[in-house]
Amino acid sequence: MTAIVPPTDATLEQAAALLRQGGLVAFPTETVYGLGADAGSDRAVARLYEAKGRPRFNPLIAHVPTTAAALREGRFSAAAQALAEAFWPGPMTLVVPVADAGRVSRLARAGLDSVALRVPAHAVAQALLRRTGVPVVAPSANRSGGLSPTTAAHVEAGLAGRIDAVIDGGACPLGLESTILACLVGDPVLLRPGALPREAIEAVLGRPLAQGAVAPGAPVAPGQLASHYAPRARLQLHVADAPAEGAALLDFGGRLAPWRTGRTYDDLSATGDLREAAARLFAALHALDASGAALIGVAPVPMAGLGLAINDRLARAAAPRPV
Ligand code: TXA
Ligand code: MG
To answer: Given pLDDT bands bounded at 50, 70 and 90, which one contains residue 57?
Structure first.
């Protein structure tokens, strides 16, 4: 049985106890819902991989309530410290060399000598992490390869019966996963575009951000799996006019509105606001998918600011599926 509970002092205390005992608890962050487990417990982490159906080589993000706690888990370069100072708590994950006294288990790190760390800002995540008192790994609370959840109902639809509890803190305000940066050797590298726009990071670093793998042959970040964030329906991207017969439409800025009659239709943001579009992206895909459409035509989304992350998620959702 999976209990869905509102965040109260009592439920947060119970959830923290569950986590310390090796349980799996889903909770809201400002990006998406995470599925939490004690980062230091191989047993809990193994259960987490199993519940998600996640390939074991894909490492997890460890969540802590403060930058001070993060500094105990990893070794921060000057650039990493500047980023932490500027953007934590918030929608940013830093991959740094693991500290000697770090508590995140090797299994959670998929055997790497680096660790991914995040200090979320969401009040419920903060309250839970403070009460738990240990780093909590939390991948997005969906079955591996599926759409990321931005509501407790999404979590339940994918994971009911496989996890111990869901804390329902309402819809996630940002709706897109955190931006992941590697701060390993040399300048920071963008591993996954996300809810923190690249431009904001470049303003703090004072230089353009390189994108891609940490080092040749090293594990890249999240996109190494061909299809990710995938709905059941097939996606056709950059549909600027004349969508395919019968396709459901996911619009941006009203561009496809002339073709909406008789179709399942949603607009990420009728006013063309990228922040609104990011916050609604996964919920809109969930809903269009649930309508049973075989094909979803998606309007073009500009490649600036949050548009980078939105286009990244759309491209993954449209990628060929593993069979
Ligand atoms: O917004 C988010 O980041 C959400 C919320 C719950 O915090 N979490 C999330 O986690 O999206 P997940 O597990 O779905 O994505 C984490 C990604 C993985 O795909 C993995 O490739 C990358 O982070 N990652 C983790 N540790 C890494 C490491 N040591 N080196 C390179 N990439 C790493
Ligand atoms: Mg995920």
So the answer is: low
